[in-house]
Amino acid sequence: MDRFQDCVPDATVPLSADPSTSSSPTLRTKIKLYEIFSGDIVTDATLSSAARLFSENYGTWEEHSRNPWKTVKLGARRLREKYLPHPATESYYATVTVDGDLAGNAFYRRWR
Prior knowledge:
Layout: E1 2-6, E2 32-38, H1 44-57, H2 76-83, E3 91-98, E4 101-109
Antiparallel strand pairs: 1-2, 2-3, 3-4
Helix pairs in contact: 1-2
């Protein structure tokens, strides 16, 4: 597993020195953590989080489908079957978390 943190502040500096001014933006640091996992160590809990991220944020069925305008769902079992095929050691799962919340991910495979 490769790990590195990107602790770059993602903020605006207040123009006013007076903290009581409600229009002053606040300085907030976001911690971004990027990780890459070999497919053989990806847990069911990790895949459940990936499935939730996909199902809550991506895609709707088209008008002429059997589920028109409904959210496309993708479960953890299907993610493992389709995106981490055997041998899983040649598949990888990359994530980015922001302040501890899964914000993005990617599955990829490396052929030799």
